[in-house]
Amino acid sequence: MATKRILIVDDKDENRYLLQALLQGSGYEVFTAVHGADALEKARQDPPDLIITDILMPVMDGFALCRAWMKDERLQSIPLIFYTATYTDERDREFALSLGARHFIVKPAEPDDFMAVIHGVFESLEQPTAAPEGKLEEASEESVYLKQYNEVLIRKLEGKMEQLEKLNQDLEKKVAQRTAQLKESLERLEELNRVFVGRELKMAELKKKIEDLERKG
Q: What single-letter DSSP state applies at residue 2?
């Protein structure tokens, strides 16, 4: 039996390296792409047996890649798996599967669990009657797709805004604490300075009295 070929799509070098090492260690042949457009170009030239893709990527993200993949007559029968750490909401999963993805895996997955999914996909391909977990439905027509896609992006943006707001609140709290600490330190320095100046004045007065006594003596 010929070695199965898997296309990995991820814009981060480390992610591609780790996934490639895992898959090659399990006997698969692997080639990679850095974003959706790159993946489409390479797959059309040399179709893989399976594609595993991230979602958040430059140029063309994973959702757009899946949409184009399922519309390509040469590629649409090749199973596509999402592997993402950014889009983890259940609604993201539902949208991904509605586009035609076979599976939706959230990073980081345990290696054994991840490979079980991969092996399962290839086993299902040997069964003509097996139905994919995700399927391209009528709801994925262009207008509906764009609406759902925008909803996913807006939801993700709102999530990022909430995270930024929390980070901003935490930062403001830390700044306030640091400001209070600096103010307290400054007050201590001013107090020490007053004590030091007072001592200097007393020393000057004492020195003057000694000089006066010496002159009188």
A: P
Tokens of 19: 């996934």
Residue 7: phi and psi, rounded to 5, are -100, 125
Peptide bond into 111 cis (omega under 30): no
Report which residue type is found at 42. K
Backbone torsion region of residue 24, taken as left when φ is above 0, otherwise alpha when ψ lies between -120 and 50, otherwise beta = alpha
Q: Which pLDDT value is given to residue 46?
A: 95
pLDDT of residue 140: 46
Q: Which residues of the chain have pLDDT under 50?
A: 130-136, 139-140
**Dihedral over Cα of 14, 15, 16, 19: its sign:** positive
Terminal Cα distance for the chain, rounded: 117
The reported pLDDT for the residue numbered 105 is 95
Q: What DSSP string runs through 24-91?
A: HHTT-EEEEESSHHHHHHHHHHS--SEEEE-SS-SSS-HHHHHHHHHH-TTTTTS-EEEEESS--SHH
Distances (CA, A) of 54 to 67, 78, 102, 195: 14, 16, 14, 65
Classify domain 5-140 by CATH architecture.
3-Layer(aba) Sandwich (3.40)
Q: Are 8 and 16 in contact (CB under 8 A)?
A: yes
